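Figure 6 in text form: structure in, sequence out.
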């Protein structure tokens, strides 16, 4: 197949630090090219990929002029390129010029969708040419009343996450993610202090959340029991998750997927999480981690993680979320789109 894939222009593929969507796209491109498909990637000019890179001239998704430039680039290249399919992980607006054309188009949502835009796109699209995917049932179920939709989970490149079965006696809890209230960093500290465990916090702090860090996180960071190490690259992230007693996900928002959960599981590390968004779809309670109703419940489960089989956690992650599995799910969907055999009510691809 000749496949075009687009992301937003701000973050390169793969990302150095933060960039969940770009990390997923990098994994998919690697798998598609390895399988012999011809892939063109529309992305930030600093991207490093085995795909043919078409670099955006517009750098800012919030700029109308930049968005128009990038829309035009995508349309021009697709219109003249004899592609089998276009797969967008970028803004739905980037497909605007292509909507009336016959070429199969997939729009993948990694965050909460805007229903009004989906309805409008459906009206403008050539009949049966546009379908959607969500990264979880939590996301897909918000789209399905309005458009053909499939669930395809996110995943991880298997060779980048190694398994460790033997932990040291001082193995820490780990929190890894954006440092902001909805991600529950303060809850992770509470869990660590009340369970008398060490905690390593990793992640970026955006300017709008600096006051949250200063007021609710920094006072507890003592460099001994509670450590903050800043943003981490993929190698450091793998090392952190590999050596963790458990990964903490005490979120205060409806998580669309939570890639870091499956990355932790890929290392054999159990996840302790609150049941928001897609969490109940990802974690198998009592097998790959614990889904807890309260912070007190999370603290209880810290003392039970030793009962979980880390090899079984790793195997579950590979079976459900490895890059090869997720890439094949997309390729199967691509073929259905090309053959016009996607059911109107969508499909569950994993």
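Output sequence:
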């Amino acid at each position: 197949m000749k496949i075009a894939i687009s992301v937003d222009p701000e973050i390169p593929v793969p990302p150095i630090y933060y960039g969940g969507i770009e990390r997923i796209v990098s994994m998919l491109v690697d798998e598609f090219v390895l399988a012999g498909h011809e892939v063109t990637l529309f992305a930030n000019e600093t991207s490093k990929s085995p795909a043919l890179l078409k670099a955006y001239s517009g750098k800012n998704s919030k700029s109308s002029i930049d968005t128009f430039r990038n829309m035009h680039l995508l349309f021009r290249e697709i219109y003249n390129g004899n592609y089998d399919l276009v797969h967008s992980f970028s803004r739905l607006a980037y497909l605007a010029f292509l909507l009336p054309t016959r070429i199969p188009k997939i729009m993948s949502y990694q965050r909460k969708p805007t229903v009004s835009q989906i309805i409008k796109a459906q009206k403008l699209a050539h009949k049966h040419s546009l379908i959607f995917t969500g990264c979880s049932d939590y996301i897909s179920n918000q789209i399905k009343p309005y458009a053909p939709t499939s669930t395809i989970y996110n995943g991880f490149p298997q060779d980048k996450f190694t398994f460790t079965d033997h932990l040291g006696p001082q193995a820490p809890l780990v929190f890894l993610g954006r440092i902001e209230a909805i991600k529950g960093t303060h809850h992770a500290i509470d869990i660590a202090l009340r369970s008398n465990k060490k905690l390593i916090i990793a992640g970026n702090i955006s300017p709008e959340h600096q006051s949250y860090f200063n007021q609710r996180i920094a006072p507890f960071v003592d460099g001994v029991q509670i450590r903050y190490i800043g943003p981490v690259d993929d190698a450091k992230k793998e090392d952190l998750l590999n050596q963790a007693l458990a990964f903490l996900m005490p979120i205060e928002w409806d998580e669309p997927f939570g890639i870091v959960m499956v990355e932790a599981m890929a290392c054999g590390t159990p996840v302790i999480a609150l049941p928001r968004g897609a969490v109940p779809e990802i974690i198998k309670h009592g097998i790959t981690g614990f889904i807890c109703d309260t912070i007190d419940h999370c603290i209880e489960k810290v003392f039970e993680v030793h009962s979980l089989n880390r090899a079984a956690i790793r195997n579950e992650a590979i079976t459900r979320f490895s890059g090869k599995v997720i890439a094949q799910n997309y390729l199967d969907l691509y073929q259905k789109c090309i053959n016009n055999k996607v059911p109107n009510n969508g499909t569950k691809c994993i």
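Caption detail: The chain has two domains: 2-155+323-338, 158-321.
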